[in-house]
Amino acid sequence: MFKQLYDWTIGLANSRRAPQALAAVSFAESSFFPVPPDVMLVPMTMARPERAWQYAAICTLASVLGGIAGYLIGALLYDTLGAWLIRLYGYGDKMDAFRALYQQHGHWIILIKGFTPIPFKLITIASGLAGYDFLMFVLLSAITRGARFFLVAGVMNRFGGPIRRFIEGNLTLVGIVTVVAIIGGFAAAKFFF
Length: 193
Hints:
The chain is mainly α.
């Protein structure tokens, strides 16, 4: 299973649709989708290291735009779509406490949690729900998401060959670690959110 997904992603990296697919996943992850764009960014930058910075920029821009969609879900559609998404991910009972915390530390919450594997959609929806300053939200999202994606792209650009050999030689292990990291991000969000 991991080999097929990996081969598909590497194949996608060499297609004309690569930037659009990466943008779609980055956008969706910031507003509703559970899988982070890193699962596409890493193999795509391994396949095309000369495009690492382009891919990081695409991830950043699409993630911020998706974050704006998530913000709007929290601000305008929380009673319907927003609450449903938050409950779907198991955080419905924590939103009131989170709103109070947001009043004092909203900027740190966006900066720190936007850089971690904690699902960014939770932050974007909560930011809209809490009424966090929209322009500040966009600026902080661009900083934290850009830092994350450009760091990943930089590491892959610099060390992509050895990393690719390791991944391809240990695909099942890497796949399991990736799944555990995604689940761990949701678990960490339950603890810190």
